[in-house]
Specification:
The structure holds two protein chains of two kinds.
Chain A (H helix, E strand, L loop, with lengths): L23 H36 L18 H7 L2 H32 L6 H8 L1 H4 L2 H12 L6 H7 L18 H24 L3 H10 L3 H30 L2 H6 L11 H10 L4 H33 L1
Helix pairs in contact in A: 1-13, 3-8, 3-10, 6-8, 8-10, 10-13, 12-13
Chain B lengths: L3 E10 L2 E11 L4 E5 L6 H9 L6 E6 L2 E2 L10 E4 L11 H11 L4 H15 L14 H14 L4 E5 L7 H18 L2 E6 L2 H7 L2 E6 L2 E6 L1 H6 L4 H6 L6 E10 L2 E5 L5 E4 L10 E6 L4 E4 L7 E10 L4 E7 L2 E7 L10 E6 L5 E4 L16 E2 L1
Parallel strand pairs in B: 3-8, 3-9, 6-7, 7-8
Antiparallel strand pairs in B: 1-2, 1-4, 4-5, 9-10, 10-21, 11-12, 11-14, 12-13, 14-20, 15-19, 16-17, 16-19, 17-18
Helix pairs in contact in B: 2-3, 2-4, 3-4
The chains are: A mainly alpha, B alpha+beta.
Chain lengths: 319, 370
């Protein structure tokens, strides 16, 4: 210790130590010091995340059409007013709900069944577990093309099988039927999304201590009762978070639709995400596309906040 | 309550035999402790009684009914697990009442049963808590409560105290014992801790390598161990073993150690000159004696462990470590040579080949062996 230097005692808390009083630059650098350390991360986040977001949102209030050299001006809320009366957009909203919850319900329920099956002991389990993951590894563009061909009666087997089973009168392409077309991409999406649920739920299942099931069998629980009182409560947190994440991902996920139907026929498979794509890259109206994207962003944010609030309410009721 | 009869029970996993034919009769209301080192098959046997493991061959009967093919829930037994296996999403009350609820018992009866047992175990204030909000000892109590509420034919305990700290373990030991006296329930208790076995059991079943080595009351097992394994496993500090060759002279028998040291002993019948024998002496049956008092042997002091009540003296005799337990506080110098004497009435003689104890002629051989 430096004997000449006054020491800040506990009793001096709140008073400024005499030696430091007035040394303004030193105090300032003391205050700023922590910010220097976080600045690289802040700069990175601003540059990579915030700037594009703000820029993209700003387009929603401007008239940006690639083919019109005189565009670029500020138009205020005009895009949003147009959106409110855009029947294609309203149709896309309804389609988005169908697409999202239709895919999600089957992805989740089939993924859960698959996870429960994979959680049993059987020969070749590791191999099957690896194979189950495959659809997830196939590029979506490829799987979209693949499924489009499978639904095509000229090259694909599906319509012929459905006819043989008596589900179709004559083999035809459901992707060209406005009433049925949405089921094409949904089926492709279910195939693509099952592994995600199967793998995450399997991981959660494997974390359940086996002794709980043993205790329950001694207590007299049947398989169904064990599932309800042990498996489901253990899976609940995983189910909640994966359902929320997947809802947002699927709602934003236009790849399969763009590849398989391009939103057609007659906009019957147009979801908001593919409508944005169509507006931006086919009509080249970036301003309008940005306005739609902004609306989608707000809707998904509201959804996520709702789910988080619900989850918090449930865990609070829990403890 | 019921008796449990196990007849020639075997268990194999593929080609690996885990239990080699277990025979055991457990009386109604008896507290039986299965004790042995890890991997001796004691937990497997308990799980076979519970119905969590299949019986490869042989029979297990509870209350006179063979239960080999019954599901755990139809055997009317309760089990306390090492990890307690409490349902984390249920409150203490729900955990305790789960089995009754599953049997569609009337709600008032369930809550009356829970209140009654909670009173016995001192859990009344915790009934609405979840397991994660409980301490280890409280969880242990809830696990016991869950078993008691059902009033089963038999209680099975699978190392229920091994997750508790030493002080709590001691406390729960006496508590379980008192509870057993109060409920009079047939209990099978698995542990690797020989102190738990000694203090809690009506009868101890010592197991090793899938075979029952000895069945008997704690003192029978302590005083008349059937073989070297039981003698070494039961008792703390552990029994001392010295192996050598038997020498019979006109003065009596002596064990000649490798370095020529001669320890006299009371010969069991049928020992022969030159037979390989092992002498077993518990630390409290060896005395430190003054010079000249025969028959004593010299030993070198290695270490002195004072424990307050008693002192444990580690010495080396003929190159072998030997522990001596004494209530005195001897003033000994490390590396000094002292004279020690074996209490001949209490030392045991084992055949080094078969490892079986050779009982003396004048001693009642009451211990059951397998």
């Amino acid at each position: 210790m430096d004997g000449n230097k006054p020491v800040t005692n506990m009793t001096d808390v709140g008073k400024r130590p005499a030696a430091r009083r007035g040394v303004f630059s030193r105090r300032l650098s003391g205050i700023l010091e922590p910010y220097y350390y976080v600045s690289p991360a802040v700069v990175l986040i601003v540059a990579v995340m915030l700037m594009p977001l703000i820029l993209g949102l700003s387009y929603a209030f401007r008239d940006i059409r690639i083919l019109n050299p005189f565009s670029g001006g500020f138009v205020g809320l005009a895009h949003f007013q147009a959106l409110a009366h855009d029947s294609a957009f309203l149709g896309a909203l309804i389609n988005t709900a169908w697409w999202t919850f239709g895919s999600l319900a089957f992805q989740f329920s089939l993924g859960l069944v698959l996870a429960l099956l994979l959680n049993r002991q059987f020969l070749g389990r590791r191999l099957i577990q690896a194979l189950v993951f495959l659809p997830w590894a196939v590029p979506t563009f490829l799987s979209g093309l693949n499924w489009a061909w499978m639904f095509n009666p000229v090259v694909g087997p599906l319509p012929h099988w459905l006819t043989s089973l008596g589900l179709m009168d004559t083999p035809f392409n459901i992707l060209s039927d406005p009433d049925l077309a949405m089921w094409g991409p949904i089926i492709a999406n279910i195939w693509f999304g099952i592994p995600f649920f199967a793998i995450t739920l399997l991981a959660a299942l494997q974390s359940i201590p086996g002794e709980l099931y043993e205790a329950a069998s001694i207590d007299g629980a049947t398989t169904r009762q064990k599932f309800i009182s042990i498996t489901i409560p253990f899976l609940a947190p995983t189910i909640a978070i994966t359902l929320m994440l997947r809802t947002i991902w699927i709602a934003n996920f236009a790849d399969l639709i763009v590849v398989m139907t391009k939103g057609g026929p007659a906009d019957s498979t147009q979801i908001v995400a593919s409508y944005i794509f169509t507006q931006a890259f086919r009509r080249l109206d970036f301003g309008y596309a940005s306005a739609i994207a902004a609306v989608l962003l707000v809707l998904l944010l509201a959804y996520a906040l709702g789910v988080i609030a619900l989850r918090r309410a449930m865990t609070h009721a829990d403890s | 309550m019921a008796s449990i009869e196990i007849t020639n029970a075997r268990k194999s996993y593929g080609a690996v035999d885990v239990l080699h034919g277990i025979d055991l009769d457990i009386q109604d209301g008896e507290f039986i402790v299965l004790v042995g080192p890890s991997g001796c098959g004691k937990s497997t046997l308990l799980r076979m009684i519970a119905g969590l493991e299949e019986i490869t061959s042989g029979d297990i009967a509870i209350g006179g009914n063979v239960v080999n093919d019954l599901d755990p829930k139809d055997r009317d037994i309760a089990m306390v697990f090492q990890s307690y296996a409490l349902y984390p999403h249920m409150t203490v009350a729900q955990n305790m009442g789960y089995a009754l609820t599953l049997r569609k018992t009337a709600r008032e009866k369930v809550s009356a049963a829970i209140d009654n047992v909670a009173g016995i175990l001192g859990l009344n204030a915790l009934l609405q808590r979840r397991p994660k909000a409980l301490s280890g000892g409280q969880r242990q109590r809830v696990a016991m409560g869950r078993a008691i509420v059902r009033q089963p034919q038999a209680f099975l305990f699978d190392e229920p105290l091994s997750n508790l700290d030493a002080r709590l373990r001691e406390q729960m030991r006496t508590e379980i014992r008192k509870l057993h006296r109060r409920l009079g329930a047939t209990s099978v208790y698995v542990t690797h801790d020989q102190i738990e076995a000694m203090t809690m059991a009506d009868r101890i079943v010592a197991m090793y390598d899938g075979i029952v080595q000895q069945v008997g009351t704690p003192l029978e097992i302590y005083d008349r161990p059937a073989n070297i394994f039981v003698a070494s496993f039961i008792g703390s500090p552990a029994m001392n073993f010295l192996s050598g060759t038997c020498q019979i002279t006109a003065q009596g028998c002596a064990l000649i150690l490798d370095d020529g040291t001669s320890i006299p002993f009371l010969a069991p019948p049928n020992v022969s000159n030159g037979q390989k024998l092992t002498l077993g002496a518990r630390p409290e049956h060896i005395d430190i004696v003054g010079n000249g008092s025969a028959p004593s042997v010299p030993a070198t002091v290695d270490l002195i462990e004072p424990m307050g009540l008693s002192t444990l003296v580690h010495v080396t005799l003929a190159g072998k470590p030997v522990k001596i337990f004494t209530l005195a506080r001897p003033d000994l110098a490390i590396d000094s040579t002292i004279e020690i004497a074996f209490n001949m009435d209490k030392t045991h003689i084992f055949d080094s080949e078969t490892e079986l104890r050779l009982p003396r002629a004048n001693e009642p051989f009451a211990a059951e062996t397998a």
